[in-house]
Structures are given as C-alpha cells and as structure tokens.
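tool_call: predict_structure(chain=1)
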Amino acid sequence: MQIQMPSSLRDPVYHLLVGALSPPHTLSLTLTIFPGAYLSQLRGFGQLPDLIDPTAPNEAVRIDPITSNFDAPAHPEVFSPLTLLPPSMQLEPLINVHKQRLIAGVIKSLVAGQHHASRVQFPVDKKIFQKCLKLRALNSDTLSRVLSRYPD
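tool_result:
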C-alpha cells in the first residue's frame, strides 16, 4: 500500500522540519519536537552584528547608503604604530565569523536531531492516519472568534 500525501506536505520546507513518509505501513518521521528552541537561538544569533569594526569591536559598522561604502573606522589611531597600508587599500570591517559559527552549530544540532529521529519506525494505524491527512485548519475569522472567548 502506498501512502498518498497531500500536495501541501510535498513542500520542501515541510520536509526540512518534519521529514518524509515511508510506505507501506510505517511512518518514519524526522520530527523536530520543539522548533521554537532552534528558531529562538537563530533569532538571537541573527541580532549579532554581521561586521565588526577592527578598531572598535563594540561599535556598530555603518554603511553609506549612497555610495555603499563602509564608514571610516571609529578609532584609526589604534593601528598608528603599524606600517601604513598602501593608498590603494583601506581598512575595512571584519566579518563576524563567530556569529556564522553559532548559526552553523544550531543548524548542525537540528540536522543531527532529525537524523537521530529518522531511525525510529512507528507503526501506522491507517484509519487514524487518513483522518489526520484530512484535517483542515480553521479560517482566520473562526480562529479569532474562538480565541476571543479566552482571556489573555
């Protein structure tokens, strides 16, 4: 028996977060139990700066919206004891590699959890599975009406 998936479940984003169905009578889910835990970490790391001023790491790097050039370093005198750069080169901000590593760590953790969960096989009750596939979401009006009955 082949399990048919609704077209909405064929969406690649769905498969990233939930996984795939494997016929005939087993359901192999790569389930992310608490996606909010991963998303909150990504949101927090996304707030870190993309660029770092080498002369003032705690100050924001600004980009001129007209010329698309970086503003001059906040404290160029920090590098005054060093040999000057050639005129064709200028001191530019550094890429925040730490931020990229933190984001990569969250993604690796998510993928590792999905791979671990994909090894678990669950027996499928065909009747319940078919009912689950036919579930529909509430429209926004009905959802608003139901939620208005509950105090905050």
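agent: The longest helix spans residues 97-118. Proceeding to next step.
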